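Table S4 entry, 3-oxo-5-alpha-steroid 4-dehydrogenase 1 isoform X2.
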Amino acid sequence: MPLYTCTLAFTFCVYNGYLQSRYLSQYAVYADDWVTDPRFLVGFCLWLIGMLINIHSDHILRNLRKPGETGYKIPRGGLFEYVTAANYFGEVVEWCGYALASWSVQGGAFAAFTFCILVSRAQQHHHP
């Protein structure tokens, strides 16, 4: 991975983490019963499902090749039977769930950004 790409990714993650945490710790005002609100409950469930999809998909990807084996392999199993990049799909679901549960512009913006970036990266799997 080029150093420039790594630096941009690191900078973005630090900035996004700051925005999300700053909003939640300093500006967000939720009712006392927010954790029983349907937006929070559905968002939390989406986040959890997305995380489980992501973890399972990453497990499949890590075990594609045996030690010492090289070459291209197509992942099979889980949601890879239905989508090209199941790990990206899981991450998009996670962030959409977070956006819904937090009910914030910051969460929604990051979910939209994640969708746009990861969909384009998933499409690149189909180009040589």
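The mean pLDDT is 92.
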